[in-house]
Amino acid sequence: MALISRVGKRLRRIIQRPGSVELTRYEALLPAVEKLEPELEKLENAELTERAGKLRDAIGGAASFTDSQLIEICALGREAARRELGERAFDMQLLGTMGLLTGHVVQMETGEGKTLAGALAAAGYALRGRRVHVVTVNDYLARRDAEWMGPVYDLLGVTVGWVEPAHSKEERKEAYGKEVTYGAVAEIGFDVLRDRLVTHPDDLVQKAPEVAIVDEADSVLVDEARVPLVMAGSIDHNDADEEVAKIVRRLRLGLHYETDSEGRNAWLTSAGASVVEKSLGGVDLYDESGSDRLAAVNVALHAHALLTRDVDYLVRDGKVQLINAARGRVAELQRWPDGLQAAVEAKEQVTATDRGEILDSITVQALLARYPEVAGMTGTAVAVAEQLREFYKLEVAVIPPNTPNVREDQPDRVFASPSQKLRAIEEEIRTVHETGRPILVGTQDVAESEELAEKLAKVDLPCVVLNARNDAEEAAIIAEAGKKGAVTVSTQMAGRGTDIRLGGSDGASREEVAELGGLHVIGTARYPSSRLDGQLRGRSGRQGDPGSAIFFASLNDDLVLSNAPDLPDGIDADTETGEITDPAAHRQLNHAQRVAEGVDLEIHRNTWRYTRLIERQRAELLEHRDKVLHTGLAAEELEQAQPEKFAELKEKLDDSDRLEQVCREVRLFHLDQLWSDHLAYLTDVRESIHLRALARETPLDEFHRAAIPEFHKIIAESASRAAKTLEEAEITDNGLDLAEVGVRRANTTWTYLVHDNPFDSDFEQTVKKVRSMMRMKKS
């Protein structure tokens, strides 16, 4: 059997279905599910709920599901959905449910009913006695799906809730107390961080993690895996160096500074360094005395040269707001590391935001790794099957569409220049629009979407624009994108969460639009990931609808210039249109995309190599913190270390519970402060670690050598500091004045996500930059 399994996996890779799970087992169960339908249809609602309760009693606490239990869950779920939603789950949806219940990532195309499949799986896990978190990509989907699927859960006797930013601590507690809780990945992660700072057990809002079902799994588990979620405490105002920002604003590319082809690094030339040093009053940037100014110059230069307004960020309501490149929408609560955030704010001359001391952080990957059982669903999983296996030990189950996909995916059209490509896109929109077919145009960023909209308006082709500026209206815009004659220009469609129905939201002209050929999708360029291309294409051809998709590209697109700029000889373009039909151009385009995907994967791997050690240290520290939080350990330690002072404190505090809480707060304050200091130390180590490569040392090994000894001091040091606090404290009738003895937590705390660290570049890029600086200094 093991040999057959290995051969099967090998064959799936050969036919380019890496990691795809064999569905034969699940397909064999579908007739049994259907056979139960007449029996369940006769039951009253109360009887159906009672039957689900009997299933709960039978499987509660089991480690996994038997085939008969999968059949019963699917049959009960199908009947509940038919009664409460008016939807009878398709066989393919039930295959998806079974794939989720057996711990896989299921690939289901757009419009195939992932939301219902996920809800039935969540109910199944709940009936097995597991707490389930359905992890979404945004707060809107969390609330929508919880409310939409609520009646199904109710009929099955399963409780459901959701968390969103506006919820109070009590509302969060109530939501997490349900058997199934929906929440955006960031919101769930922030609650984890908040729970790690509580000083009394009653303040915890979450319970131990058990099952996560991840919607848009490839986006969450791969694209956002390395994004750190941060809990910060206010310390002071984040003042950027305004003088440096003004100086850098005058520098010119090619004369004063250079950038690498990937757009990840910028560095001063000798001429640029001379200008900056003179403008700063004659300092030597590369002398030890000028090191602080050099750091400020480098950050300001990065903000000036490598980050573009309306591409990487917006300026709205007097604030710099980052754009999530994978989704084309504002990345709420997201910011760059503090120095760069301040530099961009100085560049745009907006009010600087507060700077905070990082109290704790966790990457999305580490957040999901906390769950003993993880499953997921998405429309594009096969392309990242190897990563899902490597980082999460998850396999992909590809669910066939309920109705065969008849969408026509047309060959890419490649042009020599972006301007020639744009003219061809305008002509394509005009030609298709004249037929009455609805058109969805997917652009790369906000700036491009608005530029295209302006050009279309000038030639009497009005359109609706969906981008980060108006993402609040996204559901309404997408819902009408299938109307006859509609032209919708949008940034990335991943995670939008609303299907495009032919004929618009009411479907009034569905048949007419279908006869015309359905939705026509146009991509204005290939994305850095083939999955994003697939997600855009997948908006057309929903549930067997007719449709088509085509991508336009240029050999001077950013994707090619950044990843495969060396073009093969002999590629000729049409002299009038600039179109290139040579297959070599298509190969170059595909090569550039593969390079981009490879670079992204290596960054993911590199980030995880560093964060794995931090996560192990955090887990060890949290185990100790939980012991302090839930037991009288702190009081025991302080009594042993300071018996006289402890006895005096005990005499003043007549409540023994109150005594333990005071001791707990002192001990946890120092433990948390030392962990915050440790994180700051690791950040400093990480930012300078690659310089050690010049001495032929391995950066990761050096990081471990620096991080491990420092971590092992934390627990003992926190106990020692707590004892010293008690020793120096004045004990009054009310016990200890904690603030008086320095046990003072941040007055305000906030949460945010850190955008991919732009300084965390590949080793080779770092060495190149350092060597350039050294050469410049010698000259």
Automatic annotation (TrEMBL):
The UniProt entry, under SMART domains, shows: SecA_DEAD, SecA_PP_bind
Keywords on this record? Answer: ATP-binding, Cell membrane, Cytoplasm, Membrane, Nucleotide-binding, Protein transport, Translocase, Translocation, Transport
Q: Which Pfam families match?
A: P-loop_SecA, SecA_DEAD, SecA_PP_bind, SecA_SW
Q: Which domain of life is it from?
A: Bacteria
Give every Helicase C-terminal domain span.
Answer: 417-589
Catalyses:
ATP + H2O + cellular proteinSide 1 = ADP + phosphate + cellular proteinSide 2
Q: What are this entry's molecular-function GO terms?
A: ATP binding; protein-exporting ATPase activity
Q: Where is the Helicase ATP-binding domain?
A: 95-253
User: Per UniProt, what is the membrane topology?
Assistant: Peripheral membrane protein
Tell me a GO biological process for this protein. Answer: protein transport by the Sec complex
> What positions does the entry give for ATP binding?
Q93, G111, E112, G113, K114, T115, D499
Function (record text): Part of the Sec protein translocase complex. Interacts with the SecYEG preprotein conducting channel. Has a central role in coupling the hydrolysis of ATP to the transfer of proteins into and across the cell membrane, serving as an ATP-driven molecular motor driving the stepwise translocation of polypeptide chains across the membrane.
Per UniProt, subunit arrangement is: Monomer and homodimer. Part of the essential Sec protein translocation apparatus which comprises SecA, SecYEG and auxiliary proteins SecDF. Other proteins may also be involved.
> Which family does the record claim for this protein?
Belongs to the SecA family.
Under what name is this protein listed? Answer: Protein translocase subunit SecA
Q: Which gene encodes it?
A: secA2
